[in-house]
Design a protein that fits this description.
GO molecular function: 2-aminoadipate transaminase activity; aromatic-amino-acid transaminase activity; pyridoxal phosphate binding
Protein name: Aminotransferase class I/classII large domain-containing protein
Cofactor: pyridoxal 5'-phosphate
Largest sheet: 7 strands, mixed
Distance between the termini: 51 Å
Family: Belongs to the class-I pyridoxal-phosphate-dependent aminotransferase family.
Shape: globular
Strand order of the largest sheet: 3-11-10-9-8-4-5
Order of helices and strands: HHHEEHHEHEHEEEHEHEHEEHHEEHEEH
Radius of gyration: 24 Å
Number of helices: 14
Keywords: Aminotransferase, Pyridoxal phosphate, Transferase
Length: about 500
């Protein structure tokens, strides 16, 4: 199956027109899709869900004017773009590893130079088109179609300056100040802060070991009181290896949540940075090798994305290079219906403008020219195996050193996080018999004691309270441990626990 998809991409490239050229060339996913256009229904219209600000946000006149011109035949006197003659860089040279980080890497040298045909460094160093360069957008579009295959026709992708930037724009597209956004009961602190910074309120939805509980989501929306304010229209989720809980939504749960979203006409923000970090069950360090056979197996074990279930165009999926390549690239991509992508680009044109040109050149030279689609998937599989080994080492250390009558956890099958629950009933004089408010304050005190003791012992952990969007009586004591950043030898259990 995977090989057939690669062959289809190769054949489509052979038939395709040359990539748009020149500085900031207009480009679109429509140019690069492998499947024939108009073979699927179009997305629903979503203008009724756009914010008041979004409805009046229009395309930049300068960008529209340059979009309609042929850069090779046009004398450019209209845009305030500096001359590439005076850019003080002639080339960028890179040494990239093979696509299997589990082995001794074989370095491959590549470069991006001024005047080259594949990706002119002068173009990369200039202002760029908000959706990204044709070279990178082509690869991303092929990747999205190969992995997710959205079930409607008019989907597009756009490069972003990372998910943090993309989320800020998404909130502006769909939300007015004072609106309510639905989030998992524990969620990423950056998103919580971004929503509150725009004057948005947060309503938490109950979760379990399979993800958001559809019944709780449905009940809260069915019982919504219009006197409180407009009914929520945005549902934000991290469905794979969730930050901070490590939970991955089951495929069954994803279908159920999508049905509830369709019933209440919700728009879903699918933030999925850990999608490709598939760890599998806890069975000790893996000695699997990422051969051609295991690539199909690896892809088969990835969950169905919400984008892959999206028959209405009610999902905007956010991917990022931060967890699978390098966060300093500040580059990612979103996928949604054309109408939503157009709004996203109109905000980008008057804000971040475009992702970094040098970052895009580095991504193109690595993903397209060095690895290709097969090498990229092989890298993701190898990365998953490496993180699986780190996860298993951390679990072994926790089993050895933590009091198992007080601490409990579910084994994360994706992502980077271990979410540890502290049973406060086993800790004397904490929470028992207290009112909700007093219990929460005492829980925070105990959490602070654990956090401070860990720091004194040379271990940095994250407090669970940092990830609570809405405090209520159900909030317990949790700790988030990340097994991705620490060196492998520091995760291996020793004879004594730290401190």
């Amino acid at each position: 199956m995977f090989r057939r998809r690669l062959d289809e991409i190769e054949e489509a490239r052979k038939r395709a027109q040359p990539l748009p050229s020149g500085a900031a060339p207009y480009t679109s996913s429509k140019f690069f899709k492998v499947q024939p256009l108009d073979t699927k229904p179009n997305a629903k219209c979503w203008s009724h869900r756009f914010s008041a600000n979004s409805l009046i946000q229009t395309d930049s006149a300068l960008k529209v004017a340059s979009r309609d011109s042929d850069p090779l035949s046009m004398i450019t006197l209209g845009t305030a773009r500096p001359s590439p003659e005076y850019f003080p860089w002639e080339s960028i040279e890179m040494r990239c590893p093979s696509s299997s980080p589990s082995k001794t890497p074989v370095a491959v040298s590549t470069a991006c130079t001024k005047g080259e045909q594949e990706y002119d460094l002068s173009v990369a160093m200039n202002y760029g088109y908000s959706a990204g360069s044709p070279q990178v957008l082509r690869f991303v579009t092929e990747h999205i179609e190969m992995i997710h295959n959205p079930p409607y026709n008019d989907w597009e992708s756009s490069l972003t300056c990372g998910t943090t930037s993309a989320l800020e724009i998404c909130f502006r597209i769909f939300s007015n100040p004072g609106d309510v956004v639905l989030m998992e009961e524990y969620s990423y602190i950056g998103t919580i802060s971004a929503a509150k910074a725009q004057g948005l309120k947060i309503l938490s939805v109950a979760t379990d070991n399979f993800g958001v509980i559809p019944g709780d989501l449905d009940l809260q929306l069915d019982a919504w009181d219009p006197e409180i304010g407009p009914k929520p229209i945005l549902l934000y989720m991290i469905p794979t290896g969730q930050n901070p809980t490590g939970v991955t939504h089951s495929n069954k749960r994803r279908r159920e949540i999508y049905q509830v979203a369709a019933k209440h006409d919700l728009y879903i923000l699918e933030d999925d940075p850990y999608y490709f970090l598939h760890l599998g069950p806890y069975s000790g360090p893996s000695d699997l090798e990422p051969d051609s056979t295991s690539l199909d197996e690896y892809l088969a074990h990835l969950p169905n994305s919400y984008l892959s279930l999206d028959v209405d165009g009610r999902v905007i999926r956010m991917d990022t290079t931060s967890k699978i390549l390098a966060p300093g690239l500040r580059c990612g991509w979103i996928t949604a219906s054309s109408q939503v992508i157009r709004k996203f680009l109109s905000y980008s044109e008057v804000g971040v403008l475009s992702p970094s040109g040098p970052s895009q050149a580095m991504i193109y030279k690595l993903l397209d020219k060095t690895w290709g689609h097969e090498g990229f998937i092989r890298w993701l599989l190898s990365l998953s195996l490496q993180y699986r080994e780190r996860r298993d080492l951390l679990l072994q250390a926790c089993e050895r050193f933590l009091p198992l009558d007080i601490c409990s956890w579910a084994v994360p099958t994706s992502g980077m996080f271990l979410w540890i629950k502290i049973d406060s009933s086993k800790v004397t004089d904490v929470l028992n018999g207290d009112s909700d408010d007093i219990a929460w304050r005492r829980a925070l005190q105990l959490e602070e004691e654990i956090f401070s003791q860990a720091r004194r012992s040379g271990v940095l952990i994250s407090k669970g309270s940092w990830f609570v969007p809405v405090v209520d009586e159900s909030c317990g004591i949790y700790l988030r441990l990340t097994f991705a950043a620490a060196p492998r030898d520091e995760l291996e259990p020793s004879d004594t626990a730290p401190g």
